[in-house]
Specification:
The chain is of the alpha/beta class and about 250 residues long. Helices cover about 45% and strands about 15% of the residues. It contains 8 helices and 7 strands, in the order E-H-E-H-E-H-E-H-E-H-H-E-H-H-E. Helix 1 (about 10-25) links the parallel strand 1 and strand 2. The radius of gyration is 17 Å and the shape is globular. It binds NADP nicotinamide-adenine-dinucleotide phosphate.
Length: about 250
């Protein structure tokens, strides 16, 4: 069976992407950094669809852990055909209040993490190119990097987060050129999605953010999973960013 890795899939958007990929017929590597119980629950959800799942704790910012994550997947499933670099962290602090190490921690997780897992998965994604042609799936090997609307707009209390998400767009285009024609590499840039990451807004802040969205509500993790499934199967799209934000970025 073709297998996919979704980093940071114990919760939120990553969880929704993993469950969607399982429904679409993929075995899954569920990854977490600290929340094993939640990751195990997602794996149970994957198995309920009839697909296989493994759970691997790995801090994607550590290149060796990223390698282990990929190796475990290849051992379990014989290969990997899709990678979603979703793991990410955020922190709401003005620049003058950032402590030494804060900036690097966000960049290490959000950008270096995507790079580390992609690099480790690269030979296996290349190999998968020849194995996945056939009636089972129309998709060719792919990487999707989960960026953010803040990559375009910036954010006053999240400068490191916005910088990391803008960095991911450069990484996406570079890898799309680098890995073509065997592997497609795209990005997803969600707007505000209801997950643990956005749960700390005050009602006033949430209302202000909601009011800026033409569709009048926040996104749902399953709606980002739709975008990930689309890019997974979009065999003539590479180097693109799919904006999923309820119209917030429209001009
Ligand atoms: P979330 O609910 O906070 O979940 C974050 C996930 O990433 C968890 O599974 C967490 O694992 C994992 N993770 C964090 N650091 C990691 C590390 N070093 N190594 C491996 N896994 C790690 O976040 P979310 O809202 O679903 O966000 C998912 C992605 O979408 C992120 O890249 C985020 O920047 C992006 N995004 C989110 C929004 C939004 O509005 N929510 C908007 C735009 C972009 P544990 O459970 O073990 O902690």
């Amino acid at each position: 069976m073709p297998a996919a890795i979704v980093t940071g899939s114990s919760r939120g958007i990553g969880r929704a992407i993993a469950l969607r990929f399982a429904q679409d017929g993929y075995d899954l590597c569920i990854n977490y950094v600290s929340n094993r119980e939640a990751a195990e629950e997602v794996a149970t959800g994957v198995r309920e669809t009839g697909q296989e799942a493994i759970v691997v704790g790995a801090d994607v910012s550590d290149p060796e852990a990223a390698k282990d994550l990929v190796e475990h997947t290849v051992e379990a499933f014989g290969g990997v055909v899709h990678l979603v670099n979703n793991a990410g962290i955020d922190q709401h602090v003005y620049t003058e209040n950032l402590e030494p190490g804060d900036f690097d921690h966000v960049i290490d997780t959000n950008v270096n993490g995507a790079f580390n897992v992609t690099k480790a998965a690269l030979p296996h994604l290349r190999e998968a190119g020849t194995e996945t042609e056939g009636p089972f799936t129309p998709s060719t090997p792919s990487v999707a990097n989960v960026s953010s609307i803040l990559a375009y707009t910036g954010a006053p209390i999240e400068c490191h987060y916005a910088a990391s998400k803008a960095g991911l767009l450069g990484l996406t285009k570079s890898h799309a050129r680098d890995f073509a024609p065997e592997i497609r590499v795209n990005a997803i840039a969600p707007g505000h999605v209801e997950t643990d990451m956005t749960a700390d807004r005050t009602p006033e802040e949430a209302e202000e953010e909601r009011a800026a969205i033409p569709l009048g509500r926040f996104g749902r993790p399953a709606e980002i999973a739709n975008a990930a499934a689309y890019l997974r199967d979009a065999t003539f799209i590479t180097g693109e960013t799919l904006n999923v934000n309820g119209g917030e970025l429209m001009r």
